[in-house]
Amino acid sequence: MVRQLAVLLSAGVFMAFAASGAAIAADGDVIARIGKEKVTEAELKAAEAELGPQFKSMPEDRRRFAVLSALIDIKALATEAEKAKLQNDPKVAAQLQFEHDRTLHNAYFAKNGVADVSDAELKARYDKEIAAMPPRKEVHARHILLKTKEEAEAVIKQLEGGADFETVAKEKSTGPSGPDGGDLGFFGPGQMVPPFEKAAFALKPGEFTKEPVQTQFGWHVIKVEETRDAPPPPYDQVKDQLRQLVLREKYMAMVGKARQQLGIEYVDPAMKAQVEAIEKEVESGQPDAGGKASGAAK
Predict the structure, then answer these.
(1) Any domain includes 30
(2) What band does 286 get if pLDDT is binned at 50, 70 and 90?
(3) Is residue 184 part of a domain?
(4) Which of 7, 31, 239, 247 has the most crowded Cβ, counting Cβ within 10 A?
């Protein structure tokens, strides 16, 4: 029901790794000290979010210490790096700026995007999506699966002579649904192999195929019991998909507004030319050189 999404959020949207030495905490929040540096509970929690998966195979009672040990290692070498003035190295400075910006980016969206999605909003979006869904037909069918065309033709003659479909299916079908009278339940478009689907959807309730239908599984005789409009998926089943859809839209709107207010200038000539070319491709609907439609560059 809901469009499958590739959410444009980094893996760390819901977490932030505190910069070394940035936390100011009361002594009661201090977990350990390394030299003059304090390791706080807040830093440890941030580190657990970032580093925890590396220690997932460890017993739970050891995992917290492992993260703390890794955090102490990080702080130890970070202190040595500061003594060596590595923060002044252009490459290191650029990385520090990136981490600073990414942490603020994640924190801002977590507060103004993620935390702002309510159940009422998701339910309203569900109702909107359901109302916009076109009717989707489903059929309730039975089938009798046979190894040869001749066997299938013989079964069709039996049915034309008045034999009960369900009884014949139990006696002769080689498919796993045979003991259930060939009952396949309801299914919609795309759920069966094409030849089977085409034949089933061409039948009216109570009708069965007058010619055997061949698939890679064998030869089928198909009967449609009833048709219906497919019921919508339950809200709880698609709630997580809806949340991702709403989050993506909020993120794109938030970023778009910030970009527009700030203004974007591509200073590098080669980058500017590439952006302009991509924007033209998007406006014209033409694919890029890789054969895929490019995303808009703002």
Answers:
(1) no
(2) low
(3) yes
(4) 247
pLDDT digits (tens, 9 = 90+) for 13-39: 322 332 333 333 444 589 999 988 899
Alpha-carbon distance of 128 to 120, in angstroms, equals: 12
What is the CATH number for 218?
Answer: 3.10.50.40
Residue 184 CA to residue 186 CA, distance in Å, equals 7
Residue 206 has what DSSP assignment?
T
Q: Are 79 and 36 in contact (CB under 8 A)?
A: no
Instruction: Report the pLDDT value the prediction gives residue 211, as an integer from 0 to 100.
Output: 97
Residue 111 lies in a domain: no
Beta bridge partners of 224: 141
Q: Which residues contact 87 (CB under 8 A, 6 or more apart)?
A: 81, 93, 96
Contacts of range 263-269, beta carbons closer than 8 Å, 24 or more positions apart: 264/298
Residue 211 forms part of a structural domain: yes
Q: Do residues 8 and 252 make contact, with C-beta atoms less than 8 angstroms apart?
A: yes
Residue 194 near residue 135 (C-beta atoms within 8 A)? no
Residue with tokens 């706080």: 40
Over the stretch 140-173, which tens digit does the pLDDT of each residue have? 999 999 999 999 999 999 999 999 999 999 999 9
The overall average pLDDT reported for the chain is 86
Number of domains, the chain: 1
Structural domain boundaries, residue 153: 137-229
From CA 44, how far away is CA 30, in angstroms rounded? 10
Neighbours of 198 (CB within 10 A): 11
290: number of CA atoms within 13 Å, CB side? 5
Q: pTM of this prediction?
A: 0.60
Residue 272 CB neighbour total at 10 angstroms: 12
